[in-house]
Design a protein that fits this description.
The complex is a heterodimer of chains A (724) and B (222).
Chain A lengths: L12 H6 L4 H11 L5 H11 L1 H4 L4 H4 L9 E3 L6 E4 L4 E9 L1 H6 L1 H17 L4 E11 L7 H19 L3 E8 L8 E11 L14 E6 L9 H4 L20 H16 L3 E6 L4 H13 L2 E5 L12 H6 L5 E6 L4 H10 L3 E9 L4 E5 L2 E6 L1 H6 L25 H9 L8 H4 L10 E3 L6 E4 L6 E7 L2 H6 L1 H17 L4 E10 L6 H20 L4 E7 L3 E2 L2 E2 L3 E10 L15 E5 L10 H6 L12 H13 L6 E4 L4 H13 L3 E3 L4 H5 L6 E5 L1 H14 L3 E7 L3 E4 L2 E4 H16 L1
Parallel strand pairs in A: 4-5, 9-12, 17-18, 24-27
Antiparallel strand pairs in A: 1-2, 2-3, 3-6, 4-6, 7-10, 7-11, 8-10, 9-11, 12-13, 14-15, 15-16, 16-21, 17-21, 19-20, 22-25, 22-26, 23-25, 24-26, 27-28
Helix pairs in contact in A: 7-8, 7-10, 8-10, 10-13, 18-19, 18-21
Chain B lengths: L1 E6 L6 H10 L3 E6 L11 E4 L19 H11 L3 E5 L1 H9 L5 E3 L7 E9 L15 E8 L3 E3 L2 H9 L3 E5 L10 E5 L5 E4 L17 H13 L1
Parallel strand pairs in B: 1-2, 1-3, 3-4, 4-11
Antiparallel strand pairs in B: 5-8, 6-7, 6-9, 9-10, 10-11
Classes of the chains: A alpha+beta (724), B alpha/beta (222).
């Protein structure tokens, strides 16, 4: 084809199917255009109408989520959510999945996942200040798992460390349901001035559309469509659809964009993420009620002889599209030259409702822009309610020390140093709390304030009972923020599910959304951004439903931080009610290899009351942690281990030690503070009991004893032993 | 006391270093890598951590050939002070201002964690705030911190008291546990650990603050 314009292929049924478009969707395209689309136009439609970009299966349900509140400056629909944190400042954050690419090519898939979420944040005018990652892998001894863990963790570190954002938290879990489909959910938060947020809506006719950043290559062509398909044996063939990241370029792109924004040259801006040039240009035009003309000859290209189709669908990384104030062009160009980045005027805004793509003197696409954006199909997929979980079978007796060893010796609950020490958690020198102990905490630079970050979900619960599981994910995030003394502000959701065309999967989705919505309303934690990842199935086998909740809390002053450690002589106090719920517990899964029973019930009023109590009495509390997987025993062990002391709990029975009742915290306090807390709890009407004490060099549950040193070695060594 | 902090396109600890200098009482100017001269009257040049040019080619190799780096080399030849942290240390070895080289960590992984160091000499403007043999805790965060030098060089560094810090529990395979070294005139320090990340109580440790305090104090008197 060299030296000649490539003839565009004819549109056939096979070509339509290969673009992930259903026959009825193609019929809708014919109806909209009153003619058959060109090859390039078909590509553009497939990019805009795939699940990843259009949310066609999920939109109906996402609308039911609470997204507003006095603290919310911008909810879902832009690149990231924006929340007021006082003093004219805002935190900008979002969580997004990069599951399919990470399974195909773990290093680059994870790296570009981090790159994409960072871009979403700085596109809005915010400098990224914190990152987290929630990772779900298949079972530990599955042949693919170790390679995926190494690749994904190195990819996250390789990108975030170089870019210069501290990674302050996250999750890592293992379960056979992820054997063929790992999850990589990347979160980023940035700091901006509340009145200097940048949006994607273009305005003004005849304004230059500017292309910024790295050059366009053939990498990632069709990536968004790939991300919306199930996997099968042909997966290796999909490797070329994964993009390649360059964090050094991203760092320069961020600095240049922030400098350009400060110069007043930017009317609107949109990063090129999934389906690159197509999605970003359509989004800017549609939100501004304008048309866009692009001249692809002006697009900076890394490869020769690229077609219009390839350029419109390329997912090359580290690129931005911007509508510029024409009088500022020279200034803008100078900023990009300073940072050695490409800067090219590739088109302009036009008054007609058209998306016009010109290349080598030909018109390659001429589409009604607003319809391209707004008439993406929307489905009310059939769904069935998840049936109630059968009653839990009897739980055999077990020595509580043996049970604890089974938990802390499992990579699911062992210390994760091996993972997070590969991430720079302290760059920017504002990290107050590194990963590994609940929420990560970062100072708001130059102020007494700090932000707390957490990401949570318990997929076993969601599968057994999507509504309770959805509630629980939000409640656990809420608790992790309260446990450090922060006021929960808002959340982002990253909803990972299987194939929505199966009614039982759609039922999981609908139930989880209901639970998330209820909890977010009750706890005043609106969802301000998010992402849906469907079709997480391989050969028809779905992942556990995994709606990851990323949440942000605010500390007005570091003086409000609950960030100490348990110490010799502290009492262990349990806030909340214990009934000993063992259904779907970590104990059942890790010790008995069973996942039966119902998820624990979440009492949202109790969650709120207990969180409020903790914050109100923070000056009496040395250390606090929420109780989640593994119940009292695991939380108390982790708290003691982190403080370098031993532990005694009075209880020795399985339900008390390992039950996973919700709305509970473990508190370490001096004897005098504990007395004062008891009085305060009485007044507040919240249940608070003494369950043991910290100190010594052993861990004992009733009369069952083991040396802390031995348990600590197991806890710290198990992850690397299994996966290092 | 005037400090200049270099900014390469991929520097990401430049602000952190400037904050640490300022908190210690220095007046700080940020200097862009394409500039070819340092501001007048600069006492110390700070070369910050980060990925100056994305760690392409070799860490610090491209930065060592930047216009501003020529000015830094002249500054040190005139007896000026310089402090290179992490990527800054790599830049200093790539320029030849400090001897030896920094290779990929022996464990092949990026490592970010607090480590214990021994202060090997208090005889420099950088380390005068410590006592020789003192044990301090400072975080590291690097992929290429494995200090390499031949036996003769290690012997000479030791004999001349130019090993500034050693690791108590070697995290990266560095020869002789070396974490930081001084130039012959003791006015240039390169180290892999990040003292600017252990300089305020909120960092969870303040063992790095003495380095900035003693440097700023010494140069303010000079």
């Amino acid at each position: 084809m060299r030296g000649k314009t490539m003839q565009e292929p004819a549109i056939t049924d096979e070509l339509i199917a290969a673009h992930g478009l259903k026959p009825e969707e193609y019929a809708e395209i014919l109806r909209l255009l009153n003619r058959a689309p060109s090859f390039t136009e078909l590509g553009i439609f497939s990019a805009m109408w795939n699940e990843h970009c259009s949310y066609k299966s999920s939109k109906k349900w996402l609308r039911t989520l609470p997204t507003d509140g006095p603290q919310v400056i911008c909810g879902p629909g832009e690149n990231a959510g924006v929340v007021d944190i006082g003093d004219g400042q805002a935190v900008v954050f979002k969580m997004e999945s990069h599951n399919h690419p990470s399974y195909i090519e773990p290093y680059q898939g994870a790296a570009t996942g981090v790159g994409g979420i960072l871009r979403d944040v700085f596109t809005m005018g915010a400098r990224p200040i914190a990152a987290m990652n929630a990772l779900s892998f298949g079972e530990v001894d599955h042949p693919k798992t170790r390679q995926l863990v190494h690749g994904v963790v190195e990819g996250i570190g390789g990108y975030g460390n170089c870019f210069g954002v501290p990674t302050v938290g996250g999750e890592v879990r293992f379960h056979p349901a992820y054997n063929g489909n790992c999850l990589v959910n990347a979160f980023a938060a940035g700091l901006a001035e509340a009145d200097k947020i940048f949006y994607s809506a273009a305005s003004g006719v005849g304004m230059p559309v500017v292309y910024l950043g790295a050059k366009t290559g053939r990498d990632g062509v069709g990536g968004a469509t790939m991300a919306s398909a199930e996997f099968d044996e042909g997966i290796e063939e999909k490797r070329p659809t994964v993009q390649v990241g360059d964090p050094f370029t991203e760092k320069r792109l961020m600095e240049a964009c922030l400098e350009l924004m400060a110069s007043g040259a930017v009317i609107s801006i949109q990063d090129m993420g999934a389906a690159g040039l197509t999605c970003s240009a359509v989004e800017m035009g549609d939100k501004g009620g304008l048309g866009i003309r692009l001249d692809l000859d002006a697009v900076p290209q890394r490869e020769t002889a690229m077609t219009a189709y390839e350029m419109m669908l390329s997912e090359s990384q580290e690129r931005m599209l911007m509508v510029l104030r024409p009088e500022k062009e020279a200034e803008a160009r100078a900023i990009f030259e300073k940072w050695d980045l490409d800067f090219a005027i590739v088109g302009e805004t036009i008054p007609e409702d058209r998306f016009l793509i010109l290349h080598k003197g030909d018109c390659k696409a001429d589409l009604p822009l607003s319809k391209l954006a707004s008439s993406a199909p929307e489905y009310d997929r059939p769904w069935v309610e998840t049936p109630p979980a059968p009653e839990m079978a009897e739980v055999p007796g077990i020595d509580p020390i043996d049970a604890l060893k089974a938990l802390i010796g499992s990579p699911n609950y062992a210390a994760k140093h091996w993972v997070y020490e590969q991430y720079d958690s302290q760059v920017m020198a504002d990290t107050v709390r590194r990963p590994g102990l609940g929420a990560g905490i970062v100072r708001v630079h130059g102020t007494p304030k700090a932000l707390a970050f957490t990401s949570d979900v318990t997929p076993r619960y969601v599968r057994a009972n999507p509504v309770e599981g959805g509630r629980q994910a939000v409640a656990e995030a809420y608790r992790n923020l309260c446990a450090v003394g922060a006021r929960p502000q808002a959340a982002t959701d990253n909803l990972n599910f299987g194939n929505p065309e199966k009614p039982e999967i759609m039922g999981q989705f609908v139930g989880a959304i209901q639970g998330i919505g209820e909890a977010c309303r009750a706890l005043d934690m609106p969802i301000v951004s998010g992402n849906v990842s469907l079709y997480n199935e391989t050969d028809g086998s779905p992942i556990l439903p995994t709606p990851t909740i990323g949440a942000v809390g605010l500390l007005d002053s570091l003086d409000d931080l609950i960030g100490g450690a348990a110490a010799e002589g502290h009492l262990a106090l349990l806030l909340g009610t214990t009934t000993g719920h063992l259904g779907q517990s970590a104990l059942l899964a890790e010790v008995f290899h069973r996942e039966d029973g119902d998820a624990p019930h979440v009492d949202l009023a109790a969650e709120r009351a207990h969180g409020d109590f903790l914050r109100a009495n923070r000056r009496l509390i040395a250390a606090a942690t929420d109780l989640a997987d593994g119940g009292l025993a695991l939380a108390a062990f982790e708290m003691a281990e982190a403080g370098g002391v031993g532990l005694h709990l009075d209880a020795a029975d399985t339900p008390t030690l390992f039950g996973e009742d919700q709305a509970r915290y473990l508190i370490a306090a001096t004897f005098d503070a504990a007395e004062a807390l008891m009085v305060a709890a009485g007044k507040a009407g919240v249940p608070l009991v003494t369950v043991g004490r910290f100190g010594g060099q052993t861990v004992s549950f009733g009369g069952h004893v083991a040396p802390m040193a031995e348990l600590s070695a197991l806890f710290r060594g198990a992850f690397a032993e299994a996966l290092g | 006391m005037k400090a200049a902090v270099l900014v390469f396109p991929g520097s990401n600890c430049d602000r952190d270093l400037a904050v640490a200098f300022r908190n210690a009482g220095a007046e700080v100017t940020m200097v862009w890598h394409k500039d070819d001269a340092l501001p007048a009257g600069v006492d110390v040049v700070g070369i910050p951590g980060g990925f100056s040019f994305g760690d392409y080619l070799r860490c610090g190799a491209i930065a060592a050939r930047s216009p501003i780096t020529r000015a830094v080399i002249e500054h040190t030849h005139r007896g000026g002070y310089a402090l290179g942290i992490c990527n800054g240390f790599q830049v200093l070895t790539e320029t030849g201002i400090l001897p030896g080289a920094l290779m990929r960590n022996a464990g092949l992984k990026f490592v970010c964690k607090p480590v214990d160091l021994t202060v090997e000499t208090a005889d420099s403007a950088f380390t005068a705030g410590y006592t020789g043999g003192q044990r301090i805790t400072i975080p590291i965060a690097h992929h290429d911190g494995n200090y390499v030098a031949d036996a003769d060089l290690v012997a000479r560094l030791r004999a001349e008291g130019r090993v500034a810090f050693t690791y108590c529990d070697n995290p990266n395979g560095s020869v002789a546990d070396i974490a930081g070294i001084l130039s012959e005139n003791r006015r240039v320090l390169g180290l892999m650990p990040h003292p600017e990340r252990a300089a305020e109580p909120a960092h969870g440790g303040t063992d790095g603050a003495a380095l900035f305090r003693s440097l700023v104090g010494a140069l303010a008197l000079a």
